[in-house]
Design a protein that fits this description.
By secondary structure, this protein is α+β, with helices and mostly antiparallel strands. The protein has a domain at 28-114. It is 27% helix and 24% strand. The chain contains four helices and seven strands; from the N terminus they run ααββββαβαββ. It has helices at 3-11, 17-26, 55-64, 80-87; strands at residues 28-34, 37-38, 40-43, 46-51, 75-79, 95-99, 108-110. Strand 3 (40-43) and strand 4 form a beta hairpin. The chain starts with a helix and ends in a 26-residue tail after the last strand. It comes from Streptomyces carminius. This is SseB protein N-terminal domain-containing protein.
């Protein structure tokens, strides 16, 4: 299954979240670029990187954000694995990926939690301490 199908299966309660995550990691998603940086939004204390499975999904988001008709958006194609393993750990604070957020029945969040992002970027991993109470 492709990423859109994996997301649909998980949302319907019949998919495998691990398979969906694996497909996301292997898929090149489209990420809008604004002022030299990736387009993000903050919700619930998390910075979400907006990513889309194709240009029509990105266009639906642009319309929802009241972009002018015909306005072109600059974007980059980025592997999901690169977003999770390289971009998110370099973010200033907790970050995750929001896929196809304008698609009510087809969106999916990849939050900054253990198993999705590296442990150093996960919000649900305790800092390991040594016997003296210092961080290791």
């Amino acid at each position: 299954m492709d990423l859109v199908e994996e997301i649909a299966a998980v949302r319907a309660g019949r998919g495998n979240p691990h398979a969906m995550l694996g497909e996301f990691r292997r898929t090149a998603v489209l990420v809008p670029v604004v002022d030299g940086g990736l387009l993000t939004g903050v919700f619930g204390g998390i910075r979400w990187i907006y990513a889309f499975t194709d240009e029509p999904a990105m266009a639906r988001f642009a319309r929802a954000k009241d972009a002018a008709p015909g306005q072109e958006w600059e974007y980059e194609a980025v592997l999901g694995a690169r977003l999770l393993d390289a971009v998110i750990p370099g973010a200033d604070g907790p970050a995750g990926v929001a896929v196809n957020v304008a698609d009510e029945d087809g969106s999916m969040l990849f939050p900054p939690v253990k198993g999705v992002v590296p442990d150093a970027a996960a919000v649900d991993v305790d800092v390991d301490t040594d016997a003296d109470g210092g961080a290791r």
